[in-house]
Write a structure and sequence with these properties.
globular; 6-stranded parallel sheet; 7-stranded mixed sheet; 376 residues; single chain; Rossmann fold; alpha/beta; 2 domains; Quinone Oxidoreductase, Chain A, domain 1
């Protein structure tokens, strides 16, 4: 099968991307699905900061590669032994394939799947590869999906079936933004009813964390971002207060909003910056928990007095895919969306065509909007 895809052959090209054009629309080819594999016709694919980290070189990936890891579509063809989905089924894609056999999967922690992580880092599928080709050259898979394309060849374990009446644009957000954000609030942070939380960075993941905090029953939800428009959107989603980030008194402002408690019970960093993480850490009260979803450049480090972790009984955690179990949690989040309790559709800033992808990455680099969705 041949189809159009956005191919990245070299990362780190200069901005503006609309001029340097790091992504080219090319014809790529895949073989029929092998055992345990599925071909999905992509209907909507959203741009995420993790995609930007591939383009700008913050995260090293094998080249050339087709990026894209937050998408939804329709099953086109299934390989031998596939029983969980059939042609015509609507599905959301999952960017970390769970093998179901390693010690982490067996322990109910698929976000730590060793085999899935290794396959992703090598730019292949769980079943092997890379399987994409362009003029005979191997093209690597991003996160086992490569969703910035008309079709994607993926593992059966990279899919979750979704309702047929769920709009594809909204559905595309559940496999990454919603899972990572809402999951972080509910599972990684473990917010309990009546507690306080501050969310730093109001992109798709951060705003989904606000939705997760609302679902968890947090009494005080403070949204922090330099963009006042995003802070106001957070208020529409259920945030009780907001602080315009980027100023020197952000930490003090967050603490004041906790009315004498010295900080929030939980701070969630979705800023993708060291400054954002530092502010989140300092905004957390004694005995509190700071959770980060940020994937910054591997060379960036953060330091703090070790004694504070002990003397203040603090917890610092990393959160990957929101500590979710996708097959359980994506359907649950979709039900909340259908009930009007998790309005994911409000995160969509605009829709666009695949040919506009370089322009869209300029917008993402400038932190404009929340989620841009490519529609096929």
């Amino acid at each position: 099968m041949k189809f159009k895809a956005a191919v990245l052959r070299k990362s780190g090209l200069p901005r503006p991307y609309v001029a340097s054009r790091p992504l080219s629309i090319e014809s790529v080819e895949v073989p029929p699905p092998a055992a345990g594999e599925v071909i999905v016709a992509i209907r909507a694919a959203s741009l995420c900061h993790s995609d930007l980290s591939v383009v700008n070189g913050d995260r090293a990936w094998p080249m050339p590669i087709v990026p894209g890891h937050e998408a939804a579509g329709v099953v086109e063809e299934v390989g031998p032994g596939v029983h969980s989905v059939k042609p015509g089924d609507h599905v959301a894609l999952i960017f970390l394939t769970q093998c179901g056999e390693c010690e982490h999967c067996i322990a109910g922690k698929p976000s730590l799947c060793a085999r899935g992580t290794q396959a992703n880092r090598e730019g292949r599928l769980l079943s092997g590869g890379p399987r994409l080709r362009s003029d005979g050259q191997a093209i690597h898979h991003h996160m086992g999906l490569s969703a910035f394309a008309e079709y994607a060849l993926v593992s059966e374990k990279s899919l979750v079936k979704i309702p047929d009446d769920l709009p594809f644009v909204d559905a595309s957000l559940f496999g990454c933004a919603v899972m990572c954000g809402a999951g972080t609030a509910l599972y990684s942070a473990g917010i309990r009813p009546g507690q306080s939380v501050a969310v730093f960075g109001l992109g798709g993941v951060g705003l989904s964390a606000v939705l997760g905090a609302v679902t968890a029953g947090a009494a005080c939800i403070i949204a922090v971002d330099p963009d006042e428009g995003k802070c106001k959107l957070a208020g529409e989603l259920g945030a009780t207060d907001f602080v315009i980030g980027g100023s020197a008194n952000v930490v003090e402002a967050v603490r004041e909003l906790t009315h004498g408690h010295g900080g929030v019970d939980h701070a969630i960093d979705a800023s993708s910056s060291l400054g954002g993480f530092g502010s989140a850490f300092e905004s957390t009260r004694r005995g509190g928990c700071t959770v980060t979803t940020s994937l910054t450049h591997p060379s960036q480090t953060f330091s703090f007095p070790l004694a504070r972790i002990v003397a203040e009984a603090r917890t610092i955690k990393g959160s990957y895919i929101g500590t979710c179990i996708p097959g359980r949690d994506i359907p649950a989040f979709i039900k909340l969306y259908q009930q009007g309790r998790m309005p994911v559709n409000k995160l969509v800033t605009r829709t666009l065509k695949l040919e506009q992808i370089n322009e869209a990455f300029d917008e993402l680099s400038d932190a404009k909007g929340v989620r841009q969705v490519i529609v096929f």
